[in-house]
């Protein structure tokens, strides 16, 4: 329990968030000295390139202080307005799969409302953790703070999930499918795959080698998704008013629940898609080191952005159902928005407008909520590739990437000193695999399912950890405190989403045939189990041969502070 004190600085109630922000101004040397302790053996500040071995038995690679900030990188520059980037392209691609699972318009709309409620509950839970520990890393940070025994187990399990299942393929597939529709070409097996692969390699190199250019380009492209979403919503109002050639825009809303599925599996699978579309609310927690005044920014921008997003999502779905039949929507796949434009404006306008949908997907390829840097205006935006690579960097800084990822290269900002290309490459590999491996027709829903299931495992441990911390440390400073019934509801939902997918769906095959309907669950569990096995091999097996792993701190040339581990005989 003593090591938990590093995570929970006890203060008087009158301490403000400005005090927390001011604490982040310390130098890198002070941060390292604090993390190593005040003993004489580590009293000297580290100089660049110097290596110090730490023998403190209470050293925790995830130990946090409110004044910790990452050396190197772009600094704390994300503000309230950066959170307007919650909206992704899932709203243009997932409604068909959701409708196909639940079977009716009414059930589909209810799931979008439920997804909003669950996302809001999750947002408030993450706000409590994020304001307690305003530091980059997201769930990794919170799991380390709660589950300190067995040491490193929670971190490695999370790292295994993030590295092996941290896909960026979904938006690349959406781009490929829509660009083929706009060109009038058939979406062949390898045509779609080839375009998606080209996109993901392009975005990786763009952000890894020319980060500023990537930021400006993605800022510009990111505007498309907002404009298109608003355009769909407004057009939907016009369609519902009867001022278009759509004969009966209200037909889908009569007997809206007719044909609804009665299978828990179908609702769980559809919920994964809805939650994917809302997932942007949590991305800022991965780059907290870059957020100005984290407490204020999180508590204001998070609920505001998510609320606006939810209203637009619900209205967009109403627009889709007003302009197309349910059969048309089911068959549209990831090109629902393209179908909408074709039904309302005709085929020529459909091709032109679908290009903008494709560009919006490119703008959020490997993005979960844009937050890159615009230093002149104080607005920031950094792409999903950044979120995942910074999360990868955070794990690499602890030296816990599986070989060959556990070294200083993968934790660096090589080669630009500002953009973590090694982390982007780690993120690229599994994305390429899932673009190529599954059948193209089911690749997109399978990716969303296989990402969603292990995330619920993490969510379960996060919310249990929330209650555990409140019980063990009731007096810890909590700038924001979630209402406990919301946390209980979130916990119950996580349990349901972990159990229901194993129940047989109504059509007995799920939404990813010919793949077994339960395959994505097994993949998620296998990844978590791999994390446990890797932890055992890394943490326990060396002891059988008389070795122990000793941590040491090091500062890289770009200023990044890393913790590396080396094997020593126990006699040493």
From TrEMBL:
Residues annotated as transmembrane: 109-131, 152-178, 190-209, 216-240, 300-323, 424-447, 453-471, 483-503, 515-537
InterPro entries: AA/rel_permease1, AminoAcid_Transporter
Keywords carried by this UniProt record: Membrane, Transmembrane, Transmembrane helix
Domain of life: Eukaryota
Organism: Grifola frondosa
Protein name (Swiss-Prot/TrEMBL): High-affinity methionine permease
Topology within the bilayer: Multi-pass membrane protein
Residue numbers spanned by region Disordered: 18-48
Compartments, as annotated in UniProt: Membrane
Record-level GO cellular component terms: membrane
Residues making up the signal peptide according to the UniProt record: none
GO molecular function terms attached to this record: L-amino acid transmembrane transporter activity
Originating gene: MUP1_4
